[in-house]
Design brief:
32% of the residues lie in helices and 23% in strands. By secondary structure, the protein is α/β, with parallel strands linked by helices. The termini are far apart. Bound molecules: the ligand NCc1[nH]cc(CCC(=O)O)c1CC(=O)O. The ligand NCc1[nH]cc(CCC(=O)O)c1CC(=O)O binds next to strand 8 and helix 7. Tetrapolymerization of the monopyrrole PBG into the hydroxymethylbilane pre-uroporphyrinogen in several discrete steps.
């Protein structure tokens, strides 16, 4: 059993305050408790409000995309106000601030998107011209690629807020990550789960990551005991793919790595925001070469994209 970093005080776990973020922080704490035979009072959950939580009335695109939900938490980690930070890996920029590392991943949940609607069962059953709510560039583009007739409206806020908007008739359907719904005990609100062939998920969807300070050797040892290697390998490949592509956060990107023994298959796609063009590809190789597989696939898609593909829209 690993020694706790400091017996005089609990390990401080930094998280956002949404119900989903708290569920993820609790899952991390519970895994650490089990791995180290510790009681709940060996941990303290520290809630941190981020820019993304504060500003609800503007689109994420306007606010500047990734990093909005993480910056304040990373500042608290660097400032030693917390010892570890729990994140949805989907929301994490590909590069961490100097002094922080993100190399501990919990067993990944369902990677699929959920189709959520009070009355409609699946995308194919949406009436012509139906209004669909989503603020995700990727989901909007993927949907328009298949159904250019649909009308997209911005849909922000936590899961409960979005479900309320559906009840109020603001849109007839929306999309949420199955993982988030499952962690909130709300999987039943999904009318169907959309397979990756139909809608390739966001890079790292469904995966919880635990960040720490680079120089904190005690915490590094502690986290190593809960890192899930298959999830780690998949996330390495997907994030290498993303890192080579996300110079522009305006380009919708999807990516999913899957393991078969020691082999890894990575599928990826980039889209125009209006869905008028989709460039997709896949690579396979040794799971231990995930980062190279990700970079190679990204280079291939970049090479196949027209000159204006990554321009701002
Ligand atoms: N961008 C918000 C966000 N970040 C992570 C999740 C869900 C949980 C996950 O994918 O790990 C969600 C909500 C959603 O897309 O429905």
């Amino acid at each position: 059993m690993t020694k706790m970093p400091d017996h005089t005080r609990p390990l401080r776990i930094g998280t956002r305050g949404s119900a989903l973020a708290l569920a993820q922080a609790h899952e991390t704490r519970d895994r650490l408790m089990v791995a180290h035979g510790l009681a709940q009072d060996a941990f303290e959950i520290v809630v941190i409000k981020t820019t993304g939580d504060r500003i609800q009335d503007r689109s994420l695109k306007e606010l500047g995309g990734k990093g909005l939900f993480t910056r304040e938490i990373e500042d608290a980690l660097l400032g030693r106000e917390i010892d570890i930070a729990v994140h949805s890996m989907k929301d994490m920029p590909t590069i961490q601030p100097e002094g922080l590392v993100l190399d501990c991943f919990l067993p990944r949940e369902d990677v699929r998107d959920a189709f959520v609607s009070p009355h409609v069962n699946a995308i194919s059953e949406l009436p012509q011209g139906a209004v669909v709510g989503s603020s995700s560039l990727r989901r909007r583009a993927q949907l328009l690629a298949r159904r250019p007739d649909l009308q997209l409206v911005e849909f922000r806020g936590n899961v409960q807020t979005r479900l309320k908007k559906l009840d109020d008739g603001v849109a007839v359907a929306t999309f949420l990550a199955m993982a988030g719904l499952t962690r909130l005990g709300l999987a039943h609100v999904a009318k169907s789960a959309i397979g990756p062939d139909e809608m390739l998920p966001a890079v790292a969807q469904g995966c919880i990551g635990v960040e720490r300070r680079l120089d904190d050797a005690d915490v590094a040892r502690l986290l190593a005991t809960i890192n899930h290697t298959p999830s780690y390998l998949r996330i390495q490949a997907e994030r290498a793919f993303l890192a080579r592509l996300d110079g522009s956060c305006q380009t919708p990107i999807a990516g999913l790595a899957e393991l078969d023994g020691d082999r890894l298959r990575l599928r990826g796609e980039i889209l125009r925001p209006d869905g008028s063009e989709v460039i997709a590809g896949e690579r396979e190789g040794l799971a231990s070469d995930g980062a190279a597989i990700g970079t190679d696939l990204a280079n291939e898609l970049r090479g196949r994209a027209p000159a204006d593909f990554f321009e701002q829209h």
